[in-house]
Design brief:
By secondary structure, the chain is α+β, with helices and mostly antiparallel strands. The protein has one domain (about 5-155): 3-Layer(aba) Sandwich (Trna Endonuclease, Chain: A, domain 1), CATH 3.40.1350. About 25% of the residues lie in helices and about 25% in strands. The chain has five helices and six strands, in the order H-E-E-E-H-H-E-E-E-H-H. The chain has helices at about 5-20, 65-70, 70-85, 135, 155, and strands at about 25, 40-45, 50-55, 90-100, 105-110, 115. A six-stranded mixed beta sheet has the order 1-2-3-4-5-6. Strand 5 and strand 6 form a beta hairpin. The chain is globular. It starts with 6 loop residues before the first helix and ends with a helix. About 25% of the residues are buried.
Length: about 160
């Protein structure tokens, strides 16, 4: 458990990544120049590394311009990190914006730009009685993408 705020959101992101085959570790909140500037590091056996920083936002829209204006410190840290690790082809630095009403919007930080990336789809749990932390954060998927996790209790068959 970290001392950062928003650990429930972090746990939801971690579980979402694990459901899609990633091994996820949490970066401690204290400063250490050897740590990447991220909250989570998700890796796959294929060599793909996703360094993810999560930011809670209160207003839409989430556009590239929003990231560039509200996350400038994160962009500078990521670009510095990318320049030091230019030989690592599987490295992806990402900023995930979390909106209480809309869920996650994901952006990849590149050396000269920022681009929006699609979010994962959530599987519908087979047994609603075995709800996971993802079920408590039912708005993880951005409305622009197809959503497979029903929010309505009637849709889930609980009523």
């Amino acid at each position: 458990m970290t001392s950062r705020r928003g650990t429930l959101i972090e746990d939801g992101a971690r579980e979402l990544l694990q459901m899609h085959g990633y091994t996820v570790r949490t970066i401690p909140p204290e400063f250490n120049k050897r740590y990447p500037p991220a909250h989570l590091v998700a890796t796959r056996e294929t060599g793909e590394n996703r360094h993810i920083k999560i930011r809670k936002m209160y207003r839409r829209p989430s556009t590239v311009e929003t990231v560039e204006s509200h996350c400038t410190k994160d962009l500078v840290q990521y670009r510095k990190y990318l320049s030091r690790h230019a030989e690592d082809t599987g490295l992806h630095c990402e900023i995930w914006l979390y909106f209480l009403s809309y869920g996650f919007c994901c952006f990849e930080v590149l050396m000269g730009s920022v681009r929006e990336i699609p979010q994962f789809l959530l599987p519908v749990p087979a047994d609603p009685g075995n709800a996971t932390i993802i079920d408590t954060i039912s708005t993880l998927v951005t409305p622009g993408f197809s959503r497979t996790l029903p929010v309505d209790p009637v849709e889930r068959g609980e009523v």
